[in-house]
Amino acid sequence: MGSTMGDMHIDVASVKSRLVDFRERERDIDNQIERLERMTAKMESAGAQPLSDMPRSPSISSDRMADYVAQKEELEQEIRSAIGSQSEEKAELEGVLSKIKSPDEKAVIRMRYFDRSSWNEVLDMLFGSRDDFLDKQETYLRRVHKIHGAALFHMSVILNENDPNTEVPADM
Rounded mean pLDDT of the chain? Predict the structure, then answer.
């Protein structure tokens, strides 16, 4: 979904895609960390072998442990690399958000993509304290979606201009 502002083409879909990709990479990192924790637990249980006077081949056990250690080190490096890339991307996205004046637009983007909150969580955070919240929940949800759309548009404008000093007014 692109719009045109003067001679400038605004590509809102690419900004949304970038944010969705960021959120999905965060989920992948969480999954990899969970995998690492399981691998570590498996290694600890494999390392606690019963002592016995019976002769056995130590090479099979140590080869398996060496494989676990190598897999664990590789996974730890993948996780560190992914976290580093995510930190860079988040810093870039925060730089774009810092140029948006509307605190609600910033909140929607941060909650939805950085915190991976559901739409209902975003809705509750922005409007849950309103007296008429329960009566007008659907109206407020539509407002959240409009704020989200405006935030994507403003982020697109900022990224398109690629000017570090560009600020987007809250009522643009």
Answer: 86
